[in-house]
Design a protein that fits this description.
signal; TMEM42; mainly alpha; EamA domain-containing protein; EmrE-like; transmembrane
Length: 128
């Protein structure tokens, strides 16, 4: 049954949260304004790129909340849904930061992220 597919919705919501951050960064920072303009030009978008990326930011935020609440409704534990959402958000954020913005994360970031996820998993086991 679809009730068992809470994990899909939790992972998808985490990915949307990461992309929400990407579009927010493309909208707001001076550093990325050249990149966002280049992306808009390559997509043959004639309007101001920051407006489009702001709309995408709002859209992905709305989609993320919709997917997250669906995962909460279908899952057995809000903690487990949050763990999947957060873990996915960390990984997709790291990947998109590297690919889109050339931001390599230091080993300390990865260690901290791993500890946060591990702590969440330990806390989530109480809900099983």
């Amino acid at each position: 049954s679809w009730r068992q597919h809470w994990m899909f919705f939790a992972v998808a919501s985490g990915a949307c949260a990461a992309f929400n951050g990407v579009f927010a960064k493309l909208t707001t920072t001076e550093l990325t304004s050249k990149l966002s303009t280049a992306i808009a030009t390559s997509l043959n978008i004639q309007t101001h790129s920051s407006i489009i990326f702001f709309i995408l930011n709002l859209t992905f935020n709305g989609i993320m909340w919709s997917l997250f609440t669906t995962a909460l409704k279908r899952g057995k534990s809000a903690t487990q849904v949050s763990i999947m959402n957060t873990s996915t958000n960390f990984l997709v954020t790291a990947f998109t930061g590297l690919v889109i913005f050339s931001e390599a994360l230091p080993p300390m970031w990865w260690a901290g992220a791993a500890l946060l996820v591990a702590g969440s998993v330990v806390a989530g086991r109480k809900d099983e």
